[in-house]
Amino acid sequence: MSSPYDDLDRPPLSEQALRGALVRPGELWREVRVVGETGSTNADLAAAAERGAGEGAVLVAESQTAGRGRLHRDWTSPPRAGLTFSILLRPDDVPTTRWGWLPLLAGVSVARAVARFGEVEARLKWPNDVLVGPDRRKAAGLLAQVAGGAVVVGIGLNVTTRADELPEGATSLAASGASGTDRDPLLRAILRAVAEDYRRWRDAGGDAERSGLAATYDGLSDTLGREVVVTLPAGEPIRGVAGAIADDGRLVVTGEGGKARAVAAGDVTHVRSA
User: In terms of pTM, does the model score above 0.90?
Assistant: First the structure.
């Protein structure tokens, strides 16, 4: 049997084609740039936001030299093997207390697009991982930051990355048997899904329940209903059942004695299935 990596081709993305497909009057995406290499797409768009860049900018890099994940971890990927990009959003009419849903919203969009385009199971691990395949390994990570009154969301997705190129415990769409691994239409599908989910969420004033985002997230979550251990950036780990996502995007964990605690950040370990 031939390997999915035999004669693997990694063509470059076309900025012109992506702009033609995504930048339309009245639509969310107003600028799409593709660069061969940069330190970090999030850092670049955050700097642009500080200079007053408008909503709807997308920056894609074929290679990142200083990509960062959550908790300052590195995010590395061979050139053209994945999708590494950031988006700039300015939900000015949504209370900032609800902005914590934006990385979760982006995760929902990525999972929906991956499942539809690649015909592979996609699930979400709070707060920022997209898991794919029957073994539910991490294929994508997301990182959001506030800069210049905007929210910049960075997304890194392993697409054709080979097993020997992946970090331990990670996977790619190709390694998980996805039927589609063409990065150009996949990126278009993700960005269209983000625009659709973002519009509904914003039209509802950032209310995740009213927009339907909360229900969609619950249906895709691999964390809710599980016993988890949350290792916080500082302090003792929290152990309990991940019961819900709060209005501001925090994970509500119920421990011994029924005491519930909402956490905004931390490493989540799944202890057992729901």
Answer: yes
